[in-house]
Amino acid sequence: MRTIATGHIAVLCLLLGGCATQYRTVSQTQVTTVSTKKGEEIKIEKAPYIAFEEVIERSPNVKSVTRMTDLKGEREPSFFALAPSGDEMVYQALEEADGQALMNLWKAPTSGGTGMTRLTAGRYYDLEPTYAPSGTDVLFASNRSSETPRLFRVRADGAGGITKLTQSEAADRSPSCTSDGDMIYYQSKPFNSQTWQIWRINANGALPTQLKEGVRPRTSPNMKQVLYCAQDRKSEKWKIWVMNIDGTGETQLTTGTDSDDTYPSWSLDGKMIVYASDIGKDSNGKRNFDIWTMSADGSMKTQLTTNGSTDFLPSYSADGRYIYFLSNRGFNWDIWRMEMVE
């Protein structure tokens, strides 16, 4: 029987790009809530996602990709936000202290430096940060005051204390500020509710108002519309919607029963939307989440990343030149930045 040397097999695998050893399942720690006798309490789950060993991006629509964090698995980053100035970002990161898992907020420069600093501390789950339009404050969800997550505010420079914004018994998550800083939109799950809902409050936490069922609201730069995701009741797939700022005129932007379309975010001029979808396949025919863009009306859908790993949580840079995203390419979760082909 003819044999092939191990080195030759490796070369053949690289040429074909199809060896199973290049794929691995990498879990992500996710925070959900469950209804208990005490109310909506945090529950930690491990969700498996496909990852690809190579970090290279071969998409014709992407000029380059840059790893913005290199945590080597010591901390697991997840939701992040870019400062309005464009010079820094804040992200939530999972770590362990004395055998106990916790999530705090960290800051990192977008210049690629190594000056990562802790913004919050404590044995809490600090989640889903976003900057206020002024850049002076960071809003986030946390279980700091109870087992139920609520919305909080902290200064972006870490000075001063932490202020609680929502007071209800509902689980409040994923805040987003209007560009004038006057209103905060967020997702909320009241006790024993089966679905998440979009709510809004004044910047000081007053006058909570329910709008629609859905998650992860993102207000448009002109303050006229809100992007959000809602689950199709028949297919149970997540789709992207847009509505007027007052909750009227809801319009579905992505369709189909064979994919999840999630984590939409506006470009700074409001003309484009970047999001994650698993409708595409990589060069080996495997389904995975990639970064896509579309026009604000849902037309001109374009796939950007094609790496065999999981790419999601995209966000435009302040100058519109880059898109930042979370990825497990290379088998570790990190925040990446892509430069698009013009």
UniProtKB/TrEMBL annotation:
Annotated InterPro entries: 6-blade_b-propeller_TolB-like (IPR011042), LRP1-like_beta_prop (IPR032485)
SUPFAM superfamilies reported in the protein's UniProt record: Tricorn protease N-terminal domain
Domain of life per record: Bacteria
Alphabetized Pfam families for the sequence: DUF5050
Residue ranges of domain Prolow-density lipoprotein receptor-related protein 1-like beta-propeller in the record: 143-338
Protein name: TolB family protein
Upper taxonomic lineage: Bacteria, Candidatus Eiseniibacteriota
